[in-house]
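Let us begin with a simple case.
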Amino acid sequence: MSEAKRQARQSRMTKETEIDVSLRLDGPAGAEAETGVGFFDHMLQLLAHHSGIGLIIKARGDLHVDAHHTVEDVGIVLGKTMREALGDMKGFRRFGWAIVPMQESLAQVSLDICGRPHLSFNTPSLPDKVGDFDTELVEEFLLALCNNLGMTLHVDVLRGQNAHHVIEAVFKALAKALEQALERREGEAPSTKGCL
């Protein structure tokens, strides 16, 4: 098993956003998240803490329009950074799954970091907002993450009423599934093909 440090840094600058992401897949766990979108920062902090990833995200975006570009572009850059940190795509588990409760909400996440991006996202109907955060942006973030990491992700919220609880359960379940999938293990690429 390679003992190389699984870490990376990526930046992206457009006319809409400036994003900088640094991460360490092997921790120490925790996040410095400064996106200008408070609820999203909270979810990124949960994601890092519960997955064991060390994460620094700095983002400036056109929040005078709305948070869409910022949230989506963070997903893009985070996915690319995680993919870079995995290097040759050898020596990790690949698959992960978790079922996580958050009070009345229960989220199930299954994922495969395999180079084939796909998102299946099923939640109960949610109100449009949690505070100032547009709840539809959760799916946009996850889609951008999947497409740029090369991850198949299935998110199923089995029950839930409170939008904050539902979204928090999703991010925590994603974190625990990532923790499992990213775990170091002996061997070549986690595929019978010999590569991912």
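The second case is a distinct protein. As before, the sequence precedes its structure tokens.
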Amino acid sequence: MHTKITANAVAMKRWLSRAEESLGNHSDRLNAINIFPVADGDTGTNLYQTARAAARAAHEAETSDLGELLSIAGRAAMEDARGNSGTLFAVFLAAFAEPLHGVTRLTSTLLAAALHRAQIRSWSALSDPVPGTMLSVLEASARGAAEAASGHAGDDSNSALALTLRASVQQSLRAVIRTESQLGPLTEAKVVDAGGVGFLLILDALRAAALGEELQDELIDGLHGYDIQAPHIHNGGDAEGVEVMCTINLSPLDAATLRLHLDEIGDSVIMSAVTAVEEGYRWRVHVHVPDAAPALALIHEAGDPVNITVTLLAAPPVGDASR
């Protein structure tokens, strides 16, 4: 099959649009198997809405610089990030952009560098990263790209990029399959990780956009719990507490202090710098807590937050029309 490779800014815009479309098409199934870290049934929705913000920002950007384009998309995603999965995707996208500044075409070497950078940033954004999640799938994608790129050192050809993209997707698929055995709740429910599947869809959208190919729908065939006939797993779940998110300008020291305090009262703490500002950095903050008031008090004590959201973690029972 003839492959038309156009791994430029147009292709990156196409990537984010196709990721948005793919996540939208799969959001219901991703929600259905969302049981970790809490069974709130919103991973697919959160990824879709975050990808939509990134795609819209990229579409409006007028630049051929890949790093600049994806940084614009990453900042938009971070400002509108939803949930654990959406926040991690935003972190991934912003970090993925960093090695691509000043270039107008993606190569196998640059892809490997971008995925490696995204892996480091994503793991460091969480206070307590857990294997068997979206993080493990990202790590596998970076490893697959690095191995493929090293076999074509110095080769910036389109064929080397194609091999690297495909290797990265295949390693991600294997990592998604492994998630079921890495986390007890997934093993018990006999499902793979929802965030991991979502990232696999995002990475396959990159492959398709860069190589001028179609999405590989067969990638998800046979993933445990993912068949359309499979029942919803969470059924409302037993999650308790709330998810608090906001954006805030802080110095690195003040951000580290806030992270420490949030770790003491909650979990699933994610803090990632969006962009540099006069005070230090603009941070996106995410935490799960039993009650919002103490977390909000700590956040307001640290600075002046904006874009504050407080969301119940418990998902409504399946069929609840109020969702």
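The chain has eleven helices and four strands. The first helix runs from residue 9 to 32.
Keep these points in mind for the review questions at the end of the chapter.
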